[in-house]
Specification:
617 residues, alpha+beta, 11-stranded mixed β-sheet, 11 strands, elongated
Length: 617
């Protein structure tokens, strides 16, 4: 197999070079039969209006090319400002497509223009742009089959549609790379739509620049020229020759037989001046200017005061330690955030600040990142403020909360709890705090056994076992005959203790988990923590037949064993507080909740959290 790879690998360079050389030879034989003075006369007949329209169309096309880089830098989180990303992209592509080795030259020029970014990020951005540029060309070529009189066969439209839908499916579902838990790094669906929209604008703009340069006597419609031009442009791109010379001209000569050869070659010559020559000259001048001015600095996050998680009103904010989240600022409002495949999610209530002031900035920030803005598991007060700001709101869960000082085990609502505690005591279960530094291997063994029984852990809004997580938590262990049989971990802050992980062995005695949570409540009472949260459970609602969103949420709750979880928490007689999700509109809310469901049930690998992140004024 290795020998085959070594044999085939050079072909990807040799084949385009051979095709390009063959096209140049064929073009030379074709041009040798044409009267060159006639071609030059046709060029001189191009009017000022035609040059002006072609120049405007070229500017629009290169503007769209610059947006490629803007969206890719946003997707790759390079921190490069949009104006610098667009400038570097237009310069790199203008010179790269003229030289014929676009990927190599454009990658070097991007690195030259964005030196503080480093080689690896620039290489990643360049590779992603090259792939999506080719994909965009293929999709647009297929879509052009729908134009009246298009010479592109309809089967290419079906192929392009399937390809576009496949890319969107990969973006939404985000399946893992084979043998890993890391999702395929496809941009979000918003970015995919934006990138393909840029492809359409870029290609149509270039086609219009070519079309307006045709002589007035050319009997050819613009809608017919578009697919022909796209096909010819792709042929030139694949040939690898400078500016696609040879393949581009031969394709046009073969697909536009109604235009005379001198007129067509004159149009191509004028097009090359306006679309290749002028942008290349401007790009080279910009490079000289950049050499005298120096590279732009890398944009850094604004430094803002960071509120320690130990001071958060909701201890569950510490989830950022296991879901790759971060604390972010918006107009002085600090929020715990996490990014999913399609959404920029603001978890829980803000740590501090004013919600109505922050909401427009949060929405704009998510849009700039190519994601959907979503508030998740917020309280009723925050939901009311979001609704007053005309955001769509729905109840998604209820959180079980207790006042430790008022907790009475003898209360009638806790009969089942007392029975479970007696069962555990009869089996010799002893509860005591776990010294994580010494007993971590035992905790890990129980967590692994739990995974084998229950499958993968859920993520994002639910805790996952890791050393970094439990080292910062209050952990209680259940021991039987000196052996650790189960444990429960709790997020802690000055105002709250919140249940996170519950893990147990397969043959753990009944009532053990109830004993762990009860001991945590007693500890909270002893150290005067005013509030204990048993975390959230799916909602129990009367489901109106017309409300499809609530019906879907109810089905999701049954699928995730929400009833059993709620029954366990109900045995402690808690107060159930509603939790809500909110988004700028109903469609965003539905899409955001679907994306959250995917991220919770099929999470990526655990990543280290950002120490802090600040953005927006």
């Amino acid at each position: 197999m290795t020998g085959l790879i070594k044999f085939v690998a050079p072909l990807r360079h040799v084949v385009p070079l051979a095709l390009g050389s063959a096209c140049l030879w064929l073009l030379w034989k074709q041009v040798s039969l044409v009267d060159i003075p006639t071609v030059w006369s046709a060029v001189k007949e191009v009017s000022i209006v035609q040059w002006g329209l072609a120049l405007a169309a070229t500017w629009i096309s290169f503007w769209a090319l610059g947006k490629y880089d803007v969206h890719m830098h946003a997707h790759c989180r390079t921190g490069v400002a949009p104006v610098h990303a667009a400038r570097s992209g237009m310069i790199a592509i203008a010179i790269g497509q003229t030289t014929g080795v676009t990927a190599v030259v454009s990658g070097f020029l991007r690195w030259r223009l964005l030196r503080p970014l480093g080689v690896a990020p620039v290489a990643g951005v360049t590779a992603a742009i090259s792939v999506f540029f080719l994909l965009g060309w293929a999709v647009i070529l297929g879509l052009s089959a729908l134009l009246p009189g298009s010479p592109v066969p309809m089967w290419l439209f079906g192929l392009a549609s399937a390809g576009l839908l496949s890319i969107l499916a990969l973006s939404v579902l985000r399946p893992p790379l084979p043998g890993t838990t890391t999702s395929i790094p496809v941009p979000s669906a918003v970015h995919v739509v934006r990138i393909f929209s840029c492809s359409i604008v870029e290609m149509v703009g270039a086609a219009f620049a070519f079309f307006v340069l045709l002589p007035s006597g050319a009997d050819v419609a613009f809608l017919f020229v578009v697919p022909v031009f796209i096909f010819a442009f792709g042929a030139g791109l694949y040939s690898g020759t400078p500016g696609g010379v040879g393949a581009f001209e031969l394709t046009l000569l073969g697909m536009l037989p109604t235009v005379s050869e001198p007129d067509l070659l004159a149009t191509v010559l004028a097009f090359r001046v306006i679309y290749f020559g002028l942008p290349t000259a401007l790009a080279l001048a910009a490079l000289v200017w950049d050499h005298t001015q120096g590279p732009p600095p890398k944009r850094k996050p604004l430094k803002r005061p960071h509120l320690p998680l130990s001071q958060a009103r909701q201890a569950e904010a510490a989830l950022v330690r296991s879901n790759g989240g971060f604390c972010a600022n918006a107009a002085g409002t600090q929020w715990v955030c996490v990014d999913t495949g399609q959404s920029h999610v603001f978890m829980l209530d803000p740590l501090m600040g004013c919600v109505p002031t922050a909401l427009p900035l949060l929405r704009q920030r998510a849009w700039d990142m190519g994601r959907l803005a979503l508030l998740y598991k917020v309280s009723e007060d925050t939901a009311i403020q979001a609704r007053q700001s005309r955001w769509s709101v729905t109840r998604i869960a209820e959180e079980a909360v207790l006042n430790p000082a008022a907790f009475d085990i003898a209360d009638r609502s806790r009969r089942q709890l007392r029975r479970k505690l007696r069962q555990a005591e009869t089996m010799g279960i002893v509860i005591r705090p776990v010294m994580v530094a010494l007993e971590y291997p035992a905790l890990e063994a129980i967590a692994n056994a739990w995974r084998q029984q229950h499958g993968r852990e859920r993520g994002v809004s639910m805790g996952r076992f890791s050393k970094a997580a439990v080292e910062n938590q209050y952990v209680l262990g259940a021991y039987q005959n000196g052996l650790l049989r189960a444990f429960a971990s709790f997020h802690t802050s000055e105002d709250e203790m919140c249940l996170d992980l519950m893990r147990q062995t397969v043959d753990c005695p009944a009532g053990t988990m109830h004993s762990l949570v009860y001991s945590a409540i007693e500890e909270a009472k002893r150290i005067y923590v005013p509030r204990v949260s048993l975390a959230a459970a799916p909602v129990e609602l009367e489901i109106p037949k017309h409300n499809y969103l609530r019906r879907a949420l109810a089905k999701a709750a049954r699928w995730s064993n929400g009833a059993g979880l709620r029954q366990f928490k109900d045995s402690f007689g808690p107060k159930w507080e509603p939790r809500y999700a909110a988004a700028p509109n109903s469609l965003t809310l539905v899409l955001g909740l679907l994306d959250m469901a995917r991220a919770v049930h099929w999470p990526d690998r655990i990543v280290a959290p950002h120490e802090s992140a600040s953005y927006l004024p």
